[in-house]
Amino acid sequence: MQLIERTINGYQILSIQEWLTSGLEHGFMNAQLDVSLESGRDWDKVYPASKLKLLKQMHGTHTILVSGNFETDAISAPLTADGWWIDLKSAPQNVAWGIKTADCAPVIVYLKSFKIVYVLHCGWRGTVDNYLALVLKQALETYHCAAEDFEICVGPAAGKCCYEVGYEVVELAEKNFLALGGTLELLAQILIKKEGEKYYFNNSGLLKAQSLLLGVPEQNIYLIPACTICDPAYFSFRRQGDAAGRQVTFVKA
Q1: Domain assignment of residue 50, yes or no
Q2: What is the DSSP string of 156-206?
Q3: What range defines the domain where residue 135 resides?
Q4: pLDDT average, residue stretch 115-142
Q5: pTM over 0.90
Q6: Residue 73 lies in a domain
């Protein structure tokens, strides 16, 4: 999987080349575009002929299915969920399905042969609660696909260099990772302990480890290495506090 940087109407967008070639319009954006408002501020400057649909995110594990009977104009209030499950064969056209982040990990899961794609918001709680693993298991059952069919890209997020978490995160991560079939030895490589009793969380690394446990080939997983706390090109709640905006990760039908 090859990551490329594109510029559309002056806005930088990170994308997977093979996905674009297959016809999947998608992207991981940065702080050039602030979508902290539910309506998606200035989206029409990026894609003038399309709408951006966002979610009221709750750090949970609920995903909304978008298929032929999904009426975008009938929904006046934002839907509450942490991910989109999009059937590209029948989803409404000229709509971008997005999630907002400012340190949490944005994840796109693509089932190319099935024309199915997921756009997920994975903060530490969603990741530790095995949100991505739940989505993968549901897809395996629904589409009778193989783990080798999944292609996964984890976007810019708070990195293990900066993402300090409390011991309650460590305890919950241990419990749920073991339940998924992982080991404490592997988890120790993800939760980096340093500076006394402080723990630093590798969110992207845990998402990758969960995917590998479910049989996704390592070559089908791409982690974009940017840390949103370190890199001022991205919004970061840890760095900016309440002044932080939100960048968007999207799939456009």
Answers
A1: yes
A2: SB--TTT-EE-HHHHHHHHHHHHHTT--HHHHHHHEEEETTTEEEE-HHHH
A3: 3-157+204-252
A4: 96
A5: yes
A6: yes
Segment 26-53 mean pLDDT: 85
Confidence of residue 77 (pLDDT cuts 50, 70, 90): low
Query: In the structure encoding, which two tokens stand for residue 188, read together?
Result: 């120790």
- Among 183, 157, 161, 134, which residue's Cα sits nearest to residue 236? 157
Q: Tabulate helix, strand, coil % of the chain (nearest 5).
A: 30, 30, 40
Q: Residue 182: inside a domain, yes or no?
A: no
Highest mean pLDDT among 9-23, 39-53, 87-101: 9-23
Distance from CA of residue 226 to its chain's centroid?
Answer: 14
- List the structure tokens of 227: 């840390």
Are the C-beta atoms of residues 246 and 100 closer than 8 Å to each other? yes
Number of domains in the chain: 1
Paired tokens of 82: 């942490």
Helices then strands, counting H and E runs in the chain, come out as: 8, 17
Is 60 exceeded by the pLDDT of residue 122? yes
